[in-house]
Structure formats: C-alpha cells, structure tokens
Amino acid sequence: MRKDFRTLMRDNAVTIMFVVLCLVAFFLSGQSLGYVAYELFGRLSRNAFIVLALIIPIIAGMGINFAITIGAMAAQIAALWVTEWQIPGLGGFAVAALMTVPIAALFGFLIGKLLNRMKGQEMIGGLILGYFANGLYQLLFLFIFGNLIPLHTDGLVIKGSTGVANTIDLNRIQAALDGIWRLDFNTAFYVCMALAAVWFIVRLAMKKTSAKSGGISLGVLAAVVLIYQIPAIKAGFATLRIPVVTFLVVGLLCLFNVAIMRTRLGQQFRAVGQNMTVANAAGINVDRVRVIAIMISTVFAGLGQLIFVQNFGLFQTYGAHEQVGLYAGAAILVGGASIVRATNGQALLGCILFHTLFIVAPLAGTNLLGDAAIGEYFRVFISYGVIALALVLHAWRGRSEKRDLRALSEKE
Amino acid sequence: MSAEYVLQMKDITKRYGENTVLEDVSLSVRPGEIHALLGENGAGKSTLMNILFGMPVIHATGGFSGTVSLDGAETHIQSPHDAMEKGIGMVHQEFMLLPGFTITENIKLNREITKPNLVSRVFGKNLETLNMKAMAKDARTALDSVGMSIDEYTLVQGLPVGYMQFVEIAREIDKKGIKLLVFDEPTAVLTESEAEQLIRVMKQIAATGIAIIFITHRLDEVIAAADSVTILRDGKLVATRDAKKTNTLELAELMIGRKGESMVTAPDRDKPHGDKVALEINHLCVDMPGEEVRDVSLKVYEGEIFGIGGLAGQGKIGIPSGIMGLYPAAGEVNVFGAAHELGNPRKSLENGLAMVSEDRRGVGLLLEQSIEDNIVFNAMQIKGEYLMGIRLLFSLRDSRKIRKVANQMIKDLDIRCTSALQHAGTLSGGNQQKVCIARALLMRPKLLFVSEPTRGIDIGAKKLVLETLVRLNREQGMTIVMVSSELMELRSICGRIAIVSEGRTVDVLKATDTDVNFGLAMSGIRPNQEGGSVNG
Q1: What pTM did the predictor assign?
Q2: What's the CA gap between A149 and A163, in Å, rounded?
Q3: Which residues from chain A sit within 8 angstroms of residue B160, using beta carbons?
Q4: What are B482's strand-pairing partners?
Q5: Which of A94, A131, A208, B74 is buried deepest, with most CB atoms within 10 A?
Q6: Domains, chain A
C-alpha cells in the first residue's frame, strides 16, 4: 500500500507540485474566484487546442513536438493575407483556416522528413528547427512581403520603411469563432452537467462501466452542482460568458485524438512509439507514420494559433509564435503527461493548472515581494523548469521501473 | 502440387569481402518436419538464415551465390517482408513484441482486422476502425493452438519471458499461408518445463504440415524434437543426419571438431601451476545485459593461464566484467586470499587486478588520444604515477618518463605504429589490442583478465597477441584468466578451461580433453567423469 502511494506520488510529482503551487499562489494573490475563473476560461478557449495538438507525436514516440512553432507561423502567414484581402468575420476566419491547412501540412512534411534523420533527438531537433524557421519567417515578413509581394492594406506595412508592421490588426476577424454563440456560464454549466449525467447513465445502462464507478461519477456530478449553489461561488461566475463554438472545436479535437487511436493508423502510431524495430519488423513503414504524426500535429498547431489570434484580435508579427512550443509543452507536462505518454485529460488539466498559475503568479509576486515583474519572470522560469523537471523525472522513472522489473523477475 | 522439399537451399556461398563465411552449404527441409540447425557461434547459422529472409545486410554486401527453392520452384527473396509473404516466419530470439500492447494487438500487429467507416471511405484503408473483437477471436485460436490459456487482452508488459515466447509463436501461426517457421534458439530463455511445452507445441505445429527449422545449441533437445539435423562448422556443411540414427555424443563431436592445427603452443611445464589459489569465485552472479552470470564458482591457481569458454551470450564475458566491478555483481570473490569488493572498479585495479576489455573501441581505448596517453592512462589515474609536482595540489604529466615507458612497451609488445604519438584510433585491431595489454601491464597486475583478445583481428595479429600472453605467463609468472569464444585458442594456450553455459559453470576441463567432452559441455551437458575431466 505504501509502495502504491509512493508510485502514485512519483508518477504524478509534477502535477501534484503544481496543484499545491496554484493553491498557494491563489491565496497569496488575494484574487476572487470570479476573476480567476473569468481569466481562466478566456485562456482555455485560446490555448487548449494547441496543447491538444501535441498528443499524437508523443504517442508516436517523438516526444514533445516543439516544432509546432512552425505550425503557428503558417497560421500567421494565413492571417496576414486574410487581413490584406480584408475578408471580414467568420468568412475571413474560414479562409484563413483553409489556407493554414496546406501550408502547415507542407511544413509538417518537411519537419517530419528532417526529424526522421535524427531519431531519438526529435525534441531538441524540433526546438532548434523552430529557431531556424524563425529566421526564414523574418526574411519573409521583413523583406519578401511588402517588397517583392506588395501589400496594399493600410497599417500592414511599416510607414516609411519596408516589411510588415510589428502588430497586425485582425479586427475584421476578431472573435469570429468565439462570437458565434456565447452562453452565460449558468446555462452552460447546467447543460454540461446534464450532458455528463446522461453520458454516465447511458454507459451504466449499456454496462460499459461497473455500477460502483458509475455511481461515483454521478455522485461527483451531484456534489459539483451542490457546491455551485453556494451564493458566493455562483456570484463569482455570474459575469462569465462562454464561447460555445470554440469549446466545441476543442471538444472535436479531443474526439479526434480518441478516434484516431482506434484506427489502423492509430495502432501504427502506438506501435512506432513503443518500438521502431518491432514495428518495422511487422512491415510498418516507420518513417511514413512518423511524418504523418508530425503533419497532423503541425496542422492542428496552425489551427490552434488561428483560434488564439482571433480571440485577441491582433498579434505581434515577430513574436506571437515564439513561445508557443515552450508554453504548450510545459502545459501538457504539468497535466501529468510525459514525453512518452499523453492523453486529452492530461492536456486539458495541464492547461488549467498552467494558466491558473500564470493568472495568479504576478499578483502573488506583487503581494509577496512588491514587484509585479517577479510574476512575469516566474512564468518563463516555471515553463523551462517544468520541462527540465519532466525530462529528469522521465529518466529517473525509466531507471526505477527497470529496477522494479528486475526485482520482479528475481522473485520468480 | 507438392514438392518433396518445402525449402531447398543449394550450394550457398557467401563472402564478406575476402572473408568467406559460408561455403557450399546446402539445406533441405521437408514439409512437416522439424529440422535442427546446429553449430557453434560463427559457424554460419545466422548468415544462412539472413539469406533465407533476404535481410538487407546480405544484399548490401554483394549478395550470395547458390539457389533457394520453395516448394520446388526457385525463388529470390528480396526482403524480410517478401519472405513473410512467401510463407516463411521467424520466432525471434530477441522478442519482437510491444510491451504496451495487449497480446491480441501484438499478434495482429500490422495485420489488423478493420471495418470501414465514413472517414476511411474518403481517406483510405489506414483510417478504418479496428475490429478488436474479431482480432481477439483470431488471437484466441492461435493461443489455443500453442496451448496457452492466458487471456488474450492481457498486456505483454510484465508477462514472464516464457509466455512472450509463446505469444511470438502464436503470432507466426496466425499468419495465413505459413509454410516454414524458423525458431532461433527458442529455449534459451525458457525454464525446463516451458522448454518441454515448447517442444510439444513444435511437434503439434509440424503435424499440421508446417516445416520448422530449429536453431539451438542444446543437443538433447535436438534428439528429443528434431527429425533431421544439419550441422555447420566454420561456414561449411559438416553433416546431415537423421535424428533417430544419431546421439548427442556424435553431434557434439561433429559440432566442435578439430579446426586445423593450433597456431600457438604454450611450452609444457612440469608443474602447470602453483599451489596457491590466486582467485576464488563462489556463487558469482553478474547482471550484465546479454551476458548474465547466474551462479559461477571457480578456483584459479597462481601462475596458470586459465580459460573460460562457452557460446556467446552464455555469461562468460560477464565473469571478468563483474569481478572488475563494471556491472552489478553479487557473490563471494577472494583475490590471493583476501576478500574482494565487488562493484568498485577503482578498488579492483588497486587490488592488483587488471582487465583487457573485449570492447576495445568502446570501453578499452581512448581513440582520439595518442598511444602513450592510452598506455599510461590507468597507471596515472589510479596509481598516480608518471606525474610530477606536488601530489593533489598540482601535478603535471611527466612527459619524458611517459615517452620512455611507452617506447619500451612498443618495443616489447611489437606494436606497429609510426610513433608513440599516433592516435590509438588509427591503429589496426591487433595493435589496438596490444595497446590495451600494455596499459594493463603498467598497472603491474597480479592477475590479468583478458576478454576475447582475438575478436575482430586477423590471423597474424592473433598469433602475436596469444604469444604475448604466453610470454607474460611463462617469463613473468603472471596469472592470466582468458575469456574467449574460440575454443581452439583456449585449448592452445590454457592449462584448464571452464565451460560456461546459461550463466553457470558446466565443467572445468583440461585442454587435452576430447572434442566430445567440450561439445557436450558447450551445450550445457556435464560430460561423464570417465571422460577424464576431473578438475584439479
């Protein structure tokens, strides 16, 4: 029993640490629950998609795909042209998405080809590739766009100089997706709870889960609904309006991640991820499967970045993509994923924890040390720290699992 | 149409450059028979199987000559995948299983049963949904036919190795149209009862008309399971026998044989060794991947050259590596009467042990460094020799002294090089080996382990290395423990030879013992005592 507890702690060390950190920072910040929830839902709708894009490469054994930065670049190229063509609203967003897919797919193909030449070094390779691509991106935006390929829309080009402006204003497609259908939190909450309840009951009726676990799930639902009835909490969420369509899109991606694993291709991802030699011996084209995994990831990262920029309504031309890979990678690790295992749940949980800390850390920093900048430092420091910690834990876990296995075989 | 032989390989010759590894070897297998393929390491078994499976290594090195026929028709097997499609299956020695998959998923890997869905109609077969139920049903049938009652949804991770072996077999059986199955040392990792079950399963499979090639070194299993036996030695076909008309003694003799005259002979001595025990090993186990030592007890006397032989992967290399502390080890080891601490390489060197590693390019040498730096490295690091200045505070290399001793060693051991400054990486294999020996000698060891000293070096260099060892022993009285896969070498310079099989000492034989005894010992059978193998 004690051993089980230790294993549990060991396997979830990062997540547990983050929960504690979030709670402490939350109390130190002195913020209301309502403010944190408001910020959190905004950030979740912006960021969850891109974090979910990391899952398939992890399962295919390629680690965290830091090259999603390049997918984000593809989205920004598309966003630039949609602005140039001045296509407004949802149409503009749709055109941008349609443009992003082929560009990101091409980039993904090239990244995949390159990563196949550096098997075992995919993470560092993807990271460096991101920096390298940033150089090409700057060449494209500073020199080619606006000079060789003229841009005509006001404000897109730096006045009296060359190259694309520092900030691209996307006011035409701002909230194109978010704004389709917003629901106040109260309604959304009850609808979600009702759907969840129906889901559990259906599974119970079909005998897919045991009565015990089904009962527990329903009990938890009831408890959540009851807690929500506390006036202070209810009031905290009152001003929140949920961008339903954005969350539906996130939900669709979750479904996709589950569904693809039930296909032959998904089986190939998993096989290649576990052991390339065995997969190859079974006649699977390992290189091709890996390229497909990276392509899918890059395309989703592009779409994720598009969701991100439409939410903000503008983006920093030369900086918006830079930290994408770092933050998404840190988020998924915080949720309990490792560089060889990841699920939708871990990605979403990681997103929630990671961004909660980002929301409360600056204020906690102010209250504790009298300087808001501390919180900002904290954010970058934590991101790198989490990734480094996850890598160390991975190596450590691998060793101790081997030790456990050896102890087991000796017992026999 | 059914031909007499399901597989016929005729006059197969394969060369790697100048080196002929297979010469005019023929192998014929009838449908439904179990055909044992027997031979020592390097006899050419794996090369023959590589040819059968069309492995890329064969095509990349200029192919082979001779013909391969399946069901009487000549074929050219291009790749392992091609072999699979032509109905040849392989049960690997290293398990080709995915630990995170269930048994069903492993059996059906890349041959999944799927059903189409909306998306797959647009994007192709790869996106069809898995039909896990149908897959499980097939897996069940295959598992039943190898006599395994285990649940087909169990994860492979954590299964006992014996079970994995049967899952692997079930996967091959599940493949449609399989005609020929190759079992590569399948019993090596099995317990006795599992091995018996395996042989039963093999017979069942053969009874359905599938032919089996059974690669092994356990002679009693050959007699128990096989219908016929083909024996290879040094890349040549020695004999093909009907298993019913032969016995383990004959097979052992055929497998070992005399490989020509020995290159080096150690001068005889009145007294082969002193009375003092130099090294006493009691119940040593070493956890060296691929070379596990399970229970080895030995006594080595002062002043002798003691040999440790056995087939590859049986644990003989693990013995010196474990004693030197390179891998985790347990057991009791006494060196010249004093208890020896395991797991501490530095201590081992300080205690007067030295080792020349079998992996000279990986572990033995600093390839980018000069010969002289390589030679003095251990003496400098462990003993603090060849340094000048104040100890511990600051110390510099004593270049003049280093040069002098290096030149002396180059002369003594006849290391062929341009100068003591030449990089070790640019030397030939034999000369690299001599640099390793020189380094070990500078430690002035009381006991020298030499692990596979002649691996990968040409005949002339082999002779020089072996002669060096004999000279060290005879002239300086150094106790030497030599580990080698080449039995002939051991028998030419060692007084006594321990044969290790499956991590245990089978027997300690005299160099003059019969081939039969050596052959039996190599396959793990302790020879009869009247064979003259009472150890001293």
Answers
A1: 0.78
A2: 10
A3: 412
A4: B307, B450
A5: A94
A6: 2-182+243-411 (1.10.3470)
